[in-house]
Design a protein that fits this description.
- By secondary structure, the chain is mainly α.
- The protein has two domains: 150 residues, no CATH class; 36 residues, no CATH class.
- Helix content is 53%, strand content 6%.
- The chain has a three-stranded antiparallel β-sheet with strand order 1-2-3.
- Strand 1 and strand 2 form a beta hairpin.
- Helix 2 packs across helix 3, helix 2 packs across helix 4 and helix 4 packs antiparallel against helix 5.
- The longest helix is centred in the middle third of the chain and has 28 residues.
- The radius of gyration is 19 Å and the shape is globular.
Length: 195
């Protein structure tokens, strides 16, 4: 479990609606989850570990610093926020999941409001994930670690599988249908990456 963070808890608070009453340790745990679960899936274990090592040794520079500052932190901001929403909005108790109402008591969760807020944050997270993925694809020569994983426990970057699909759709109803049911679609912006 990592103790190194690529985004600070203070930055998460500054750029989201998480106020100062949210427990610092809760946010830090969500940063850890966002890094280990969401980020590592996009950039792979080898590059992920290099970035953590560089941050630990205060040697993050050049292209790696640009990657973290301009792409990864934006993504981590919303992936952390996404994870934190579940932790602060829903509290497991002996009598089920409850929503705190500001006092000693709790109310049942209004699932529709919760889902709407969480989906809004997820949409932003996915936008920044796509932006990070696009950058990694276009500038892969700057990060040789993307191709260096050779152990079973090292996660490979998952940017390539997103663009391997035999279906090509112009848009509209069929494209929406495919996305709704999880069918991968080819994005014409990536013609230079063969299927």
């Amino acid at each position: 479990m990592t103790t190194t963070f690529l985004i600070s808890e203070a930055k998460v608070r500054a750029f989201t609606s998480l106020n100062n009453s949210v427990d610092t340790e809760l946010i830090k745990n969500c940063i850890r989850t966002a890094q280990d679960y969401w980020l590592q899936n996009i950039i792979g274990t080898v590059l992920y570990n290099k970035l953590l090592s560089d941050v630990d040794s205060s040697s993050l520079t050049g292209n790696y610093k640009g990657l973290v500052d301009n792409y990864i932190q934006d993504f981590l901001l919303y992936s952390t926020y996404y994870e934190t929403l579940e932790e602060i909005y829903l509290r497991p108790r002996n009598n089920g999941l409850l929503r705190p109402n500001g006092g000693e008591n709790s109310d049942p969760v209004d699932k529709d409001l919760y889902d709407m807020k969480r989906q809004s944050v997820r949409n932003k997270m996915e936008y920044y994930a796509q932006r990070l993925t696009n950058y990694i694809l276009e500038e892969s020569n700057l990060f040789p670690e993307l191709e260096q994983g050779d152990k079973l426990y090292e996660q490979e970057p998952d940017y390539a599988s997103k663009y391997k699909n035999p279906f090509v759709m112009k848009g509209g109803y069929y494209l929406d249908f495919a996305r709704k049911y999880g069918i991968r679609t080819y994005d014409r912006r990536y013609k230079q990456y063969p299927q």
